[in-house]
Amino acid sequence: MNTLMTRGIQALMVAVLIGAATFAMMRALPGDAAYRIAAGRYGYDNVDTAAADAVRAELGLDGPALPAFLNWLGDLLRLDFGHSLVSGQPVIAEIGHQLGASLSLAAVAVLLSLIMGPPLGILAGLRPGGMLDRVLLVVSTGLKAVPQFLMALILILILSVQLRLLPAAGYGAARHFILPALALALGLAAVNARIARDAMARIGAMPFYSFAQWKGLSPRQTLLRHGLRNVSVPLLTYLGLQFVTLVEGVVVVEAIFGWPGIGHALVHAIFSRDVPMVQGTALCLGLGFVLINAVIDLVTGRIDPRRAA
Amino acid sequence: MTLLKADDITVAQGGTPILHPVSLHLEPGEPLVILGETGSGKSLLAQAIMGTLPRDLAARGRVVLGDHLLDAARPGGFRPLWGRQIAVLPQEPWLSLDPLMRAKGQVTEAHHLVRGMTVPDAGAQATADLDRLGLAEAGMRYPHELSGGMAQRVAIAAARAGGARIVIADEPTKGLDAARRDEVADLLLAELARGGGLLVITHDLALARRIGGRMIVLREGRVVETGPTATVMGAPTQAYTRDLIAADPENWELRNRRPAGAPVLTATGLAAGRGGVRLFSDLSFDLTAGRILGVTGPSGCGKSTLGDVVLGLAPPSAGRMSRSAGLAPTAFQKLYQDPVAAFPRHRTLGRTLADVAPRHGEPQDRIDRLMPRLGLAPVLLTRKPDAVSGGELQRLALLRLLLVRPKFIFADEPTSRLDPITQKQVIDLLCETATTEGCAIMLVSHDPELVARTADHVLSLAPAKASEPDLSGPRVKLAGHLG
Description:
The structure holds two protein chains of two kinds. Chain A is mainly α.
């Protein structure tokens, strides 16, 4: 319960910080924010001084900063994110739409990385210093060193342009998933594999791992019953931290592949100074990070009783 | 019927022999003890018989186990016997249980996977095993919720669940105090009484005595003496065995009590804690020149903290300490547990010592005069710390203290890293120093026998959780009284 409490406080702080940052952006926007907001709400054709004044009065835009800020935060806590300055739609509806696309892409990428990384890492960790271990070190370091935008471009060049196997962009069919998910997954798998390898090498050298074999268990039984469970704890913990890499990657990769997700939306919102959308998407990603880590805390607490204590 | 017979087992590292041919046999119901100091090759012998030697070591010899004939040079052949014929008891039971699996599961899996029982049968058998060892309550606990003794019993149940009749225990009492040590010995003997064989590898004479049976004494990879344990320990025929047994604190002569000399420090009602836990309170004692105050107690009870307080390195949370007038702060010195860590690694010992003498206004030839008195050869001064033995280094550390002309030495487990024979030499020197230099000494040790035979009075600290420390020991004589 204690960990959940901590995560709750974290979530609140994330919300307040993002709220404060976007409020500051809103105030710093050139031009009259009231006109922009009014335009966002009622359409550019319907904006007049009266509408802008109404907005100004409602949001306290020209009043002192503090009451306006508290008002802003109050909206935030009531989950009222306002309207997009560009489309005029409620931010929450826009995000709800994009979040699904992003989540499915992220889920496929994480799944793919888990299929590639940890099994190789565990095999390498069973024989530290062996052939596989050394090859994996080089490959994973190389993959991790390639920035995601470059990885995406390389994949497009090879698989779409040269081999013409997959579409370079698009959304809707299963085959559209492959390239963006792969571009994300390779970088994640490179690090997953290292974490799994180090954990396996460490656990394989522990007295309890030898003792399990002295009891008469075969190497395979020892790995399945005592190895995997112990490796999963650091791996899961790291997965939570990898969410940051994932968010970073989603923003870049969605932009490149034209994926209609939240990262794509964030980039566009920033370009068009659509502050409420920036706030909404940033908040969504920030709270997502806290949520994922809370879930991982609970899961690892289940697996490892020493953590739950 | 002989359970296990090993002929001419040798171990070599890259062609250099480190264990010379040893043969042994294990009979049902009769324990076999392999006794030796660090580096005697006793653990290598056990590992060669189990097929668990590190890769860079090569064993040779023949092992007959029931109707299996094995070649020690091919360790892979031993694997199918683990759990089924040989049960290996780990050195540190806590670290040998999977931290993420409940105690009972670790026993059940061996019944199920090794002996081939169905899961419900294996579970029932595991419950019965744990009941028999007095662990009925502990089956559902995780290893971190078990005490060290409980973990040891779970490990024994798990190791034997595969049906092995031979138990090999390598240093099963490493780091345990006397009471726990006897508990482990009794547990091993109880397992032996259920049938099968027992091989115990140890440097601990008290454990060897309690296990009994037959004994092989090893030194530097060679057999020194063999015979029934009682005979070898009662009437050793070899000089080395005699030294080894004489070096056991239990066999030390009682040191003559010294009269109290000039007072050095008086402590009244001392209390201190660490990390918010009160370690001791209301301690009162006198330290006087030429006398030794022994301090004993389980690990974590505050022995080192008491030393810090007396040395003035940490403030007491209550109480008063008064040092005799006219003593320099440097008259209060500490002898560290790990001599290797107490010397700079990359300088010769001679240079390190030569730096100390002038700083305290002592002539350089004082080092040369002290060397023979501490039994140290002058050539040692040209070496670096890693090129001399632990015992020599601890004596050099004592020499360095003496250069400062201390009036008080806090010796914090000064021999816990040394072998028994070296331990005796260092402790004897320390006692001599108290007399010849007129020092007050506070000697910390986890070994009550050592303290009882050395100290003029004894302060025994209770575990940190108990509310009151108590004073005991054969020769308690303290200035104050503890409530």
